[in-house]
Write a structure and sequence with these properties.
homodimer; alpha+beta; four-stranded antiparallel beta sheet; about 40% helix; DNA-binding
DNA sequence: CGTAACTTTGACCTAAGTCAAGGCGCGTGG
DNA sequence: CCACGCGCCTTGACTTAGGTCAAAGTTACG
């Protein structure tokens, strides 16, 4: 029914590290199935006790925190290959929510086997730590962006980061990506108001740097944008759980 | 010469999880010595290749990223029990710098043994992952603070978080903590200008909520501050490497 | 069609930034 | 031993990036 790990289409991408046969066999045991969710489904809820572990197989989503005053901070855009739910397994409870934006397919892992993974597959445990450390690093970069950069620089930063991630997944064609989010989502990511996000996007479009319309984000000049945001563009290979 | 792990004064604090004798013995082998550094020493440098791993034994420091435009984002205040340098060991290179603010004593670990830890001490590997996940969570909270809260709320948030961390370490007496940072450090943490930070602190002092003068931070009314920032105050027990 | 969910635009406002001048405490060297 | 220079804090005056409000387009959809 569900795809065995060695046939996982994501594993064919150069972006992801290869696994040994032994590791693949373990992952097959670790995997408990697949889950398909509709757009706007909340996959994991802030404060939830013992959620599951997932890898995104396809589709896009959002990770966010909701503040008591009703405001929302988007932490990251979720893309294929992202691992989610570890926080709920390692710590007491989830500290952010995860929501599907398009239809998504998720690979579901047995939470109870996480411990076995640490005991039997030190390589994979290391990979897990790598993923968390990388996520931590990304949040640090986002923090520096929101804390220290202007609106234009923030949007330039986001455009470059998004393009590079989509390209690494083979989801971009000629610097055009299908981008099914709302401007409010980007605004909540960058700590800007919706109106100001819209106006800043309009200016960048006028400057022929990015154009986001009708669900497509076109990044005309990633190098210039990277210069504006002074961001470094390497996308390292990464583990895939 | 150096303290064996089972005599480590930090381990006596209720804040930190206890270790088995076996784990303590392993940590003693993992530990290569202690390092004492002077104020303003850069312990780890952004971009450095193969740095070492440390646990802070005493003293205070800062973790920060420097942007090419010269601005700086402080990611966190470093306190006893914090583990640093994993990023350089797990990923290619450090993505932020770490600097001592007071004199500090660091417990130094053999980077080469990190792999042994993952193979031989799955519990400790799990603890390491816990630490990184918690750090990630903290950065998410900081992101939500900078992205969505006003200057007053940001300072309220920082005051509460700092008080709670210092208290858990036994470094606070009656809501007063020795706080040897500069206002510029707090400003760079919260994404505010130095001047605005100063003026906002003055307002909070007038309201009898916090007073930061002559190197001491007095948090008069943590509950009210927690309410202002709408922040939740639990400090979970944590592993100590 | 009508309505609901987004986007776009214009007018106006304010929180926070910038600039600049003093103050204050401390260390150092004449 | 004191003065001057330096690092940091404080304050006031002024500016501005970005927020808020409100209304009009646009698109999709039942």
């Amino acid at each position: 029914m569900t795809t065995p790990c060695h046939r996982c289409p994501l594993r064919r991408l150069a972006l992801f590290d290869e696994l040994s046969d032994d590791q693949l066999a373990f992952m097959d045991k670790f995997k408990s199935g697949e889950l398909r969710v509709q757009p706007r489904t909340v996959i994991l809820m802030e404060g939830a006790r013992s959620p599951q572990l997932f890898t995104v197989l396809s589709g896009l989503g959002l990770r966010y925190k909701t503040l008591p005053n009703g405001r929302r901070q988007v932490l990251n855009f979720l893309m294929p290959g992202d691992f989610i739910g570890l926080q709920g397994a390692v710590m007491e409870e989830m500290q952010h929510s995860v929501e599907a934006v398009t239809e998504m397919t998720l690979c579901v892992f047995r939470r109870s086997e996480l411990w076995t993974l640490f005991r039997m597959q030190p390589n994979r445990a290391f990979d897990l730590t790598w993923l968390v450390a990388t996520e931590e690093n990304f949040l640090g970069e986002a923090l520096a962006t929101i804390g220290q950069r202007s609106a234009t620089e923030r949007i330039a930063w986001a455009s470059v980061r998004l393009l590079d991630r989509f390209e690494a997944l083979g989801l971009a064609r000629d610097r055009v990506i299908l981008f099914p989010f709302r401007q409010q989502d980007l605004a909540d990511t960058l700590g800007l108001s919706l109106v100001h996000t819209n106006k800043t996007l309009a200016k960048l479009k006028e400057r022929k740097l990015v154009d986001w319309s009708e669900g497509y984000l076109t990044v005309y000049d990633p190098d210039e944008l990277a210069r504006i945001a002074s961001v470094d563009r390497e996308v390292p290979r990464r583990p895939l759980m």
